[in-house]
Amino acid sequence: MAWRILMTWRSDRKFRKFGLILVTSLMLVSLMVINVQPTPAQLRPDRSPSTASSSPNLIVTPTTPRLGDTLSVIVPATQAPVVQMTSKAGTKIYPAYDLGNNRWRAFIPTTPLTPPGALKIQAQILGVAEIQSRTVTLQGRSFPTQRIWLPPGQDGNVSDWEFDQVDAFKKTISPEKLWNGSFRRPNDGDISTTYGIRRYYNGVFADDYFHRGVDYAGNEGSAIVAPAAGRVVFMGYEKDGFKVHGNVIGLDHGQGVLSIFLHMNSIRVKRGDRVQAGQTIGTLGDTGAATGPHLHWGLYVNGECVDPVVWRETGLD
Asked: Is the dihedral of CA 37, 112, 259, 102 positive or negative?
């Protein structure tokens, strides 16, 4: 089962050769994996709305987020506010969408690479002096680690074109909310690799790496279903140059929420299709840079890969 634990991909060019090196080594050369540590059992934090703030009407949930969580920021406003989050890494601005009844919502993603600590969230309507503000503390989180030893001299030809296509998809933002309620499990197979696993390569910690998604070790040819309603906005085939991702589909769930499915055997939808939660979109396979049949499902919010657990619990509806 080592190949299932190790399988993952990221789009940063800095690690593309590492990705292909890893697969080449898994297929052709012996590979040693040690010290795969289980994630400590942790209770989910309280996810009720915060009550203590200088702006009591600004609602941020969860109140005690941890790495990988998606923060929901609800702003009372008569028009679209500008929502920004300031952390140790700097300040970013996030789009807000109309919920009706003079309420707007923005999603703020966090990942294993987000610095833990104070997150200052501010919302302001352009031309209005009042700034609504709330500060929450992002909790650290213990992720499993893998130690991978690669033989020297391994290299490969990884196409920038392939990763550029996927990168462009991850920037997709559309205003209409298409999902409703909690997200579904996309395949019935056991989870073989969880979100957020970190790695050492030849004894050196990969600072910018984490497993961007969840892997399902299902049977080859088993159904892959849409975890939530969405629109097919991205598609690629191994035969057309997607040598790493394999046969791949990207769904837009709306408002910056996206799903991507890698290594599929067959694809049963076409670009532009509107799909419903639970609808079969393809079958599980081992196309692309995979050493055995499995599904890699990545969930992205405003361009960042988040932990899908909360979305399967509540759907952040």
From this structure: positive
